[in-house]
UniProtKB/TrEMBL annotation:
<feature type="compositionally biased region" description="Basic and acidic residues">
    <location>
        <begin position="454"/>
        <end position="464"/>
    </location>
</feature>
<feature type="region of interest" description="Disordered">
    <location>
        <begin position="1"/>
        <end position="27"/>
    </location>
</feature>
<dbReference type="Pfam" id="PF10531">
    <property type="entry name" value="SLBB"/>
</dbReference>
<keyword id="KW-0560">Oxidoreductase</keyword>
<keyword id="KW-0874">Quinone</keyword>
<keyword id="KW-0288">FMN</keyword>
<comment type="function">
    <text>NDH-1 shuttles electrons from NADH, via FMN and iron-sulfur (Fe-S) centers, to quinones in the respiratory chain.</text>
</comment>
<dbReference type="InterPro" id="IPR019554">
    <property type="entry name" value="Soluble_ligand-bd"/>
</dbReference>
<dbReference type="GO" id="GO:0050136">
    <property type="term" value="F:NADH dehydrogenase (quinone) (non-electrogenic) activity"/>
</dbReference>
<keyword id="KW-0411">Iron-sulfur</keyword>
<feature type="region of interest" description="Disordered">
    <location>
        <begin position="441"/>
        <end position="464"/>
    </location>
</feature>
<dbReference type="InterPro" id="IPR011538">
    <property type="entry name" value="Nuo51_FMN-bd"/>
</dbReference>
<keyword id="KW-0479">Metal-binding</keyword>
<dbReference type="Pfam" id="PF01512">
    <property type="entry name" value="Complex1_51K"/>
</dbReference>
<feature type="domain" description="NADH-ubiquinone oxidoreductase 51kDa subunit iron-sulphur binding">
    <location>
        <begin position="352"/>
        <end position="397"/>
    </location>
</feature>
<protein>
    <recommendedName>
        <fullName>NADH-quinone oxidoreductase subunit F</fullName>
        <ecNumber>7.1.1.-</ecNumber>
    </recommendedName>
</protein>
<dbReference type="InterPro" id="IPR001949">
    <property type="entry name" value="NADH-UbQ_OxRdtase_51kDa_CS"/>
</dbReference>
Length: 464
């Protein structure tokens, strides 16, 4: 059973042995086993599991929990890097207000991203513990785990873990004798990338079409069913128990001088390297160290470019490998840390084809609400397809740049279109000559041949 699951799990493998992972240095993964088996309730509790819930519910106020998260500088691991403590402090609270929800974003559909899957499939109780603490701090009595539909193994594991936690009294009424009630439900999405955008997630959870909602109001003011709701990524919520158990200073020290962002991060790498996979490393680890851990590029290949954190981030070059992989440093270099899972591009890969493939994904996943996204992305995909076939026309590159500029921040309802524009603009910036090679020589007829009309067929047949 375990062997076949390991074989199925392709990229989402932790590449650090259990002997390399300690509670003091690897708060997310130290409990994981080398055989990839699920950490069930008994094993989780034996490994200090639910100790943070017991400690916090009896000794700390929700305000103290939020202050600790702020000081620790836990930044959201879903891609945006927003401070979890600040987000939790902005959620409307008060006995006179309707109680809200804690929502876990487990939609993980970002191209090149496979980190939440590891935690969901092997360490479900860590997420449940983080969500209980989120409920306590945000005055919520109920939460939902919004799970990507294709993660069927995670759904199975989570369903079992929720039953275990409920039977043992970690979910339900009067948790650990504290008087605090909290329960959780698992909700599987219908398999659309846009459901990962937090307000589209809420619409989808409510059974509506998964369009993003206009903000304000933010989910913390009016979220699921109009109640204050906090939406956090799986990895963010999984970081919470250790922060509260060991304190803000301990968490800050994990990243130390490397970064102002606290803690560790599940970094990963995919593409033409020797070993794809995941590593839990201090926040601010350099890209070059990650590439070394992956064994470098496959034999005979050289690194040409890399995406730092999923398909909606901007390409960087080999010379950027010395940068700390944290939110501010990567933003200063013109990209985004995103999910922190690197996609490497080798010298024998075409940037035009890579970007065409990404834009095809983003075009297909647009919810269709804003014109620059709904119409601009398929248009960009078509232009890139022509360049890929060597059938581009003079002006196509400039047109692509104009389309991308129209998709920039603030021009659309959500961050889908700006995210789609990032790999396109950065690829043109760094590899313009490759795009120019796709422009057909002067005099070249790039129009498709008209379909010949068969006069001998009847009108009905012809239109079929
Ligand atoms: C198109 C799009 C897709 C997104 N997909 C995800 C996702 O799969 N998982 C996720 O955690 N955040 C995703 N986000 C970010 C969420 O909107 C939100 O910022 C995040 O869940 C907040 O959690 P965090 O603060 O813990 O990072 C997406 C955003 C956009 C615009
Ligand atoms: S940017 Fe795209 S995905 Fe986002 S709301 Fe507009 S059309 Fe929908």
């Amino acid at each position: 059973m375990t062997a076949s699951r390991s074989a199925l799990r392709y990229h989402s493998q932790l590449r650090q042995a259990a002997s390399e992972r300690q509670p003091e240095t690897h708060p997310l993964t130290w409990r994981l086993r080398d055989d990839g088996a699920v950490i069930d309730l008994d094993e989780y509790v034996a490994k200090d599991g639910y100790a943070a819930v017991r400690q916090v519910l009896s000794h700390q106020s929700p305000e103290e929990v939020i202050e600790t998260l702020k000081t620790a500088n836990v930044r959201g691991r879903g891609g945006g890097g927003f401070s979890a403590g600040v987000k939790w402090s902005l959620t409307l609270k008060g006995e006179d207000l309707p109680r809200g929800y804690v929502l876990c974003n487990a939609d993980e559909m970002e191209p090149g991203t496979f980190k939440d899957r590891l935690l969901l499939e092997q360490l479900p109780h860590l997420l449940i513990e983080g969500m209980i603490l989120g409920g306590y701090a945000n005055n919520a009595r109920f939460g939902y785990i919004f799970l990507r539909r294709e993660y069927v193994e995670a759904a199975r594991v989570l369903t079992r873990a929720l039953e275990e936690a409920r039977a043992a009294g970690w979910l339900g009424r009067d948790i650990a004798g504290s008087g605090f009630d909290f329960d959780l439900a698992l909700h599987t999405g219908a398999g659309r990338y846009i459901c990962g955008e937090e307000t589209a997630l809420i619409n989808s959870l409510e059974g509506r079409r998964a369009n993003p909602r206009s903000k304000p109001p933010f989910p913390g003011q009016s979220g699921a069913w109009g109640k204050p709701s906090v939406v956090n990524n799986v990895e963010t919520l999984c970081a919470v128990p250790a922060v509260l158990r060991h304190g803000a200073q301990w968490y800050q020290d994990l990243s130390g001088e490397r970064s102002n962002d606290g803690g560790t991060k599940l970094y990963g790498i995919s593409g033409r390297v020797k070993r794809t996979g995941l590593w839990e490393l201090p926040m601010g680890t350099r890209g070059g160290e990650l590439l070394d851990r992956a064994g470098g590029m496959r034999d005979g290949l050289k690194l040409k470019a890399w995406l730092p954190g999923g398909g909606s981030t901007g390409f960087l070059l080999p010379e950027h490998l010395d940068l700390a992989l944290d939110f501010d440093t990567i933003a200063k270099a013109g990209s985004r840390l995103g999910t922190g899972l690197l996609t490497v591009v080798a010298n024998n890969q075409s940037m035009v084809s890579l970007v065409r493939n990404l834009e095809a994904f983003f075009a297909r996943e647009s919810c269709g609400w804003c014109t620059p996204c709904r119409d601009g992305l398929p248009w960009a995909e078509k232009l890139l397809g022509a360049l890929e076939r060597g059938e581009g026309e003079p002006g196509d590159i400039e047109l692509l740049e104009r389309l991308a500029a129209d998709q920039g921040p603030g021009k659309t309802f959500c961050a889908h279109a700006p995210g789609a524009a990032m790999p396109l603009t950065s690829a043109i910036e760094y590899f313009r000559e490759e795009f120019a090679e796709g422009i057909a020589p002067p005099g070249w007829d790039t129009r498709l041949d008209p379909v010949p009309v068969d006069e001998s067929r009847g009108a009905d047949e012809g239109t079929r």
